[in-house]
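cron nightly-structures :: item 1 of 1
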Amino acid sequence: MWQRVEPAERGATTVLLPSLAKIEDLIVNFTAQPKVITPNKDGVNDQVVIRFSVVKVKKDPKVLIYNLGGEVIEEVRARRIALEGQPSWEATWDGGDNPPGVYICQIRVDAEAGNREASQAIILVK
């Protein structure tokens, strides 16, 4: 299939493709709540709920939890949910056997346009 492309001005070198998502827009509506978790089994803030949507990506996203040393301590399994008509995901994390401290929740998406990541901090108090 061929489509004629005419420049907007003489010598123009930019072609706009509005139907392609910008790489910055691949992960949207990312929330991790509450920001501070206290997994003491009292039913209050025992786990963080991670929700996000991915746009124009066919592969499943990864949800990774890092310590501040940059080590992946856990890959959390996310499940598909219905949220605002977009391919959306939800995961939970209760801190496991990890010591109190600050952890980073990272969403990683591998797409044809390149890889994209979004991160938020989670504080674990025991």
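cron nightly-structures :: done
The chain has one domain: 23-124.
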